[in-house]
Amino acid sequence: MDESTKRLRSLDFFMGTSFALIGLYVVFEGYTTFVSPALVTVEKSVNPGVTMLFIGGFLALLGVVLALIGMRGSGNPFLKATEVIPETIRKKSFMRGLLAMACIGVYFFVFWDRIPYVLSTFVFLAGMMLLFKGGAWWKIFLVSGVTVAIIWYVFGVLAMIPLP
Amino acid sequence: MSFEQILSEVLKTLNIEFIALIGIGTFIGLIVGALPGLTTTMGIALLTGITFKFSGHSAIALLMGLYVGGVSGGSLSAILIGIPGTPANASSTLDGFPLAMRGQGAQAIFIARAASVIGTVFGIFCLAFFTPILTNLALKFTSSEFCLLGLFGVLISGTLTGADLPMKGWIAGIFGLAIGMIGMDELTAWHRLTFGSPQLIGGVPFIPIMIGFFGIPQVIESLMSEQDVLVAVLDKTRIKLAEIFRHWWVAIRAGLVGVGIGIIPGVGEDVASWVSYGVAKKASKHPEEYGKGSLEGLIAAETADNSCIGGAIIPLLSLGIPGSPPAAVLLGAFLIHGVRPGPMLSFEFPAFTYQAVSWLLVATLFMFVLSVLIARPMQKILQIKNAILMPIVAVLCAIGSFSLDLRFIDIVLVFLAGLIGLVFRKGKYPPAPLVLGIILGPLVDTNFRRALKASNGDFSIFLTRPVALALLISIILLILGQLGVFSAIRSKLKRNKQVDALGTNSSKE
Question: Does the beta-carbon distance from B453 to A46 stay under 8 Å?
């Protein structure tokens, strides 16, 4: 087994475990629903917890199997993770991805609803294009301005959507 | 409904307004499809937000135009820059780009377009022919069949799209089913998996989840690399239309493969084009030319992904189960615009299938003309840097999802779905089963419990009806097959035979 497959299997171990936990949570929710006193008058076969028990159980089972495959395939998933994580963090592409995610996060959670839409979108577009070296500053400002104007016209005027 | 009535209903939705909207949809689709990073699924999801205020049928016509344009548009970038615009066109890159680099780009684009037209029209005719048949069959289905059909759809989609391990496809699908159960239960009004949030009582909104799941990871991954694209220059050589007729059998076979795969729930155009490419290569007299600029390979890939459109809409209209990820988003748009696909559609909107057929045919015509016209300007558009394009996509993701219900929670969901999408990409989990799972979650859940209620909680209801039993056996065989049970049995039998043979020989001696 080559190194990249071993790394993937290490990720499979952690994701399999996560899915197993999610599945167990769904089973737990399904069980609490199934035995809830509020649903005592509802027929057991129609109880909303029934499907949750099956779906959650199936997900947990598949998660466990995947985690086992991951454990067997990677050798030691924890050891592999300690190798992979620092290596990934050092990569330039990872930092660029993180920066992109941070920009989107700021636009979604900080700008949205706090700063007028047209202004916040212009700042986000121009800022992100400048950060990722989209070209000359005047081109970036022009593209950002035109994009904001089109979005404002299509969504705000034509589709009559109240922009935040 | 008589033929005249159907015809008059079809003509009502083929006026100038509809034709213009289909044309706009196809044009947007071609651009969305051609730009690497923007997929047809994402395009439909984003445009659904804009069409929110349109009348139901006109919005659907526009989105169908986008579907046709999007699947075809991807081949433009596949041929010109060697990067498929959408996953459906990945196999077109193998022969399209070498042809363009050899100075036959114009010929390759024209042949790809002609193959797309053949494929789309073939799929549309299958749609017109098979939808009423399947609808009539589906009217005989009960809850047990619908529940197992949904589950089978999710599992087969997971099996066929899970490139690394089929199990990852199943996990994606079952995880999707769990997400689909979030919200108020249809039968008892009980709130499930809402984490106490009143905004989740109505369920997880499908379109924002799709926008986030497909859009945000693409934005982030595109910005992670700093690569520039190499654009092939289009030649001015004479285009030989006869080439497509020389390979007519390849096109027909690819059309059949595309429709067949399209009908399978949640598999879609990318699998169809790869399977068709593989089949064509295997059957070809010149397999060594594949991957080096074979017109046959290009025709096989382009015909199959386009015929898959019609194939994917067949189960969508007749069963309410989408055949591909774009068809799944289309289903979400249908529901927003008051059209509930499934067997009852033939009663609520008796002419809808034929209206859809006419819209798709108009879109095909637009697709052919527009894609040939925009091929040269596209050379410039494809040079747009990711650093310019991707922030715009992020803005569209936000406003597209917000415009549906004007709720901030949808923006949060876009971000969360984006993170899940990123993790899925890194872990090589296929997106199609997740999409299908989310959309089929309520169908599987309610029909499972309805079936149990009808049988007073007796599970034998899934064994006593022939279609349900066939589906259940298929599910069991599918799981056992993928777990390697059959190959283990086969090898054990082979080993036993060898041991027996050895025993017989030694006793003879």
Answer: yes
- Given a contact cutoff of 8 angstroms between Cβ atoms, the answer to whether B304 and B258 are in contact is yes
Q: B428: exposed, middle or buried (C-beta count within 10 Å: 0-12, 13-18, 19+)?
A: middle
Check A55 against B457: CB less than 8 A apart.
no
B297-334: per-residue pLDDT in tens? 999 999 999 999 999 999 999 988 898 889 998 998 89
Residues of B in contact with A103 (CB under 8 A): 391, 394
- d(CA A108, nearest CA chain B) in Å: 7
Of A12, A38, A100, the CB nearest to B223: A100
> What 3-state class would DSSP assign to B183?
strand
Categorize the per-residue pLDDT at B237 as very low, low, confident or very high, splitting at 50, 70 and 90.
low
Instruction: Output the 3-class SS for B390-439.
Output: HHHHHHHHHHHHHHHHCCHHHHHHHHHHHHHHHHHHHCCCCHHHHHHHHH
A95 has pLDDT over 70: yes
Question: Which residues have C-beta within 8 Å of that of residue A149, sequence separation ≥ 6?
Answer: none
- Asked which of A29-38, B86-95, B114-123 is least confident by mean pLDDT, the reply is B86-95
Tell me how far apart the alpha carbons of residues B422 and B439 are, in angstroms, rounded to a whole number: 20
Cβ-Cβ contacts under 8 Å, B402 against chain A: 161, 164
Predicted complex ipTM exceeds 0.90: yes
Minimal-distance CA residue of chain A relative to B165: A66
Taking an 8 Å cut-off on Cβ atoms, the answer to whether B453 and A112 are in contact is no
Task: Tell me the pairing of strands B191-192 and B183-184.
Answer: antiparallel
CB contact under 8 A, A50 and B452: yes
pLDDT of B181 strictly over 70: yes
Q: What angle separates helix A77-90 from helix A3-34, to the nearest 10 degrees?
A: 110
**Which DSSP string do the residues of B272-317 spell out, in sequence order?**
HHHHHHHHHHHH-S-GGGTTSS-HHHHHHHHHHHHHHHHHHHHHHH
In the structure, what pLDDT confidence band is assigned to residue B103 with cuts at 50, 70 and 90?
A: confident
CA distance to partner chain A, nearest, from residue B53 (Å): 6
Local structure of residue B225 (DSSP, 8 states)? -
Binary contact (B395, A151; C-beta < 8 A) = yes
Long-range Cβ contact pairs of B461-466 (< 8 A, separation 24 or more): B461/B144, B462/B144, B462/B147, B462/B148, B465/B142, B465/B144, B465/B145
Would you say the pTM of this structure is higher than 0.90?
Answer: no
Would the pLDDT of B136 be above 80? yes
Lowest mean pLDDT across A149-153, B76-80, B266-270: B266-270
- The string of pLDDT tens digits covering residues A41-83 is 888 888 999 999 999 999 999 999 999 999 998 888 888 888 8
Q: Judge contact between B30 and B371, C-beta under 8 A.
A: yes
**Cβ separation of B387 and A133 shorter than 8 Å?**
yes
Do B193 and A29 contact (CB within 8 A), yes or no?
Answer: yes
Domain boundaries, chain A: 3-90, 92-158
- Taking 90 as the threshold, does the pLDDT of residue A5 lie above it? no
Residue A17 to chain B, least CA–CA distance (Å): 12
Which of B187, B391, B418 has its CB closest to that of A125? B391
Please, which residues bridge with residue B191 across strands? B184
Output the six-digit token pair for B480.
């056992």
State which amino acid sits at residue B412: V
First to last CA, chain B: 80
Contacts of B429 in chain A (CB under 8 A): 15
Q: Is residue B16 within 8 angstroms of chain A, CB to CB?
A: no
- CB within 8 Å: A15 and B427: yes
Dihedrals φ, ψ of A53, to 5°?
Answer: -60, -45
Indicate whether B464 pLDDT > 70: yes
